[in-house]
């Protein structure tokens, strides 16, 4: 299915290696915006879904996205232009290292759904591999970029595999980025934790919320918590 319809916008995804999935929707709906972000950066835009969700949720005047893959970049540009918030959304066709060479702005919110298949599995298409593999954007590079580009009171939010949570938190601490909120995600009540949603800030918090989110109780039977989180976006909720 090429076109994906949400309540306030639609997306084309035929040119993107990584299609719209639950991870992007989770991060777009969950990322904290309580600090009244004026400027937002989405690192690794893909279809542009997370940037578009944040445009819907926030009043941020500047929402930038970064995408290294040319096809995905062109797709996100089209999706931005066809959205109700085209005047606030901008996509850069660049890699993270290139973008960091001459940083022009600091951001109040930085989000990323990074590529994270660190196992030795490679698919048949190089484009899909680039979208999926951590070697295209190692966590340390991502955290270093967040440290460089985040405003003083900014928030950095990511979704990663739960098995990577401990090492991600350790690297972030080296850059003096401290957890603000953690939500661990399970597909169903009986499956193991699959993903971690992590939000960081520059001030160390002794007592920050850690909770768990279950997506479904059975196939296509969604939990009230998941429906509450995503109800402003999905047509079916």
Automatic annotation (TrEMBL):
Its EC number is 2.1.1.223. GO terms for biological process: methylation. SUPFAM superfamilies: S-adenosyl-L-methionine-dependent methyltransferases. Keywords: Cytoplasm, Methyltransferase, S-adenosyl-L-methionine, Transferase, tRNA processing. Pfam families: MTS. Specifically methylates the adenine in position 37 of tRNA(1)(Val) (anticodon cmo5UAC). InterPro entries: DNA_methylase_N6_adenine_CS, SAM-dependent_MTases_sf, Small_mtfrase_dom, tRNA_Adenine-N(6)_MTase, tRNA_adenine-N6_MeTrfase. CDD domains: AdoMet_MTases (cd02440). It catalyses: adenosine(37) in tRNA1(Val) + S-adenosyl-L-methionine = N(6)-methyladenosine(37) in tRNA1(Val) + S-adenosyl-L-homocysteine + H(+). The keyword Lipoprotein does not apply. It is found in: Cytoplasm. This is tRNA1(Val) (adenine(37)-N6)-methyltransferase. It is an enzyme of class 2 (transferase). It comes from Flavobacterium xylosi. Belongs to the methyltransferase superfamily. tRNA (adenine-N(6)-)-methyltransferase family. One of its GO terms (molecular function) is methyltransferase activity. Residues 36-121 form the Methyltransferase small domain.
């Amino acid at each position: 299915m090429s076109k994906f319809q949400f309540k306030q916008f639609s997306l084309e995804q035929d040119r993107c290696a990584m299609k719209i999935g639950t991870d992007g929707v989770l991060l777009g709906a969950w990322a904290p915006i309580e600090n009244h972000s004026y400027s937002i950066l989405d690192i690794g835009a893909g279809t542009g879904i997370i940037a578009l969700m944040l445009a819907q949720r926030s009043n941020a005047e500047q929402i930038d996205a970064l995408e290294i893959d040319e096809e995905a970049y062109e797709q996100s540009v089209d999706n931005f232009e066809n959205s109700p918030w085209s005047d606030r959304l901008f996509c850069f066709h660049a890699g993270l290292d290139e973008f960091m060479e001459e940083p022009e702005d600091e951001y109040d919110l930085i989000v990323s759904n990074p590529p994270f298949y660190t196992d030795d599995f490679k698919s048949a298409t190089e484009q899909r591999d680039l979208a999926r593999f951590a070697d295209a954007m190692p966590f340390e590079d991502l955290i270093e970029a967040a440290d460089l580009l985040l405003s003083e009171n900014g928030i950095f939010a990511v979704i990663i595999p739960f098995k990577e949570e401990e090492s991600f938190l350790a690297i972030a601490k080296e850059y003096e980025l401290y957890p603000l909120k953690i939500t661990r995600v399970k597909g169903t009540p009986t499956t193991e934790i699959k993903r971690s949603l992590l939000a960081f800030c520059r001030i160390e918090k002794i007592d920050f919320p850690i909770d768990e989110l279950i997506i479904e109780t059975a196939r296509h039977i969604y939990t009230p918590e998941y429906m509450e989180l995503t109800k402003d976006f999905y047509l079916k909720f």
